[in-house]
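This part of the workshop introduces the protein records we will be handling. To make this concrete, we reproduce a full record directly below:
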Amino acid sequence: MLQFYELKKLPPLTDTDSSRDLWLKLINAETEEELKKIEEMRVPVMSEAIMAYQHVAASPEFRELERMRSKARHDEAQAIRNAERRGEERANANWQGVVAEKDIALANKDVENIELRKQLELLRSQLGK
């Protein structure tokens, strides 16, 4: 039987008899404090697992893998930020183009209005004579 657990929603660990809960807490541990709390329960298999993890974590290979993972996360976040920035720049450029087109259209209407007013004045002056 396959079971899924949401590690972030685990309740505080109080029972040292539950091997499953101990392993879930160990898997979910993110800090040295959390590892110490598990180790303080004096469960031999957990102490052994924590010692094995600390031994592996101290190796140069593990540190290099962690550095590479961290760099990959950073590079991905940077790529997303750059894509967002480029998208914003394109959107701004498009809007500036739209605004420029509207400004030109308004200027053309102003010129038309001036011409129409001149023609109206000319007609009024001709009718008034």
Observations:
- The mean pLDDT is 89.
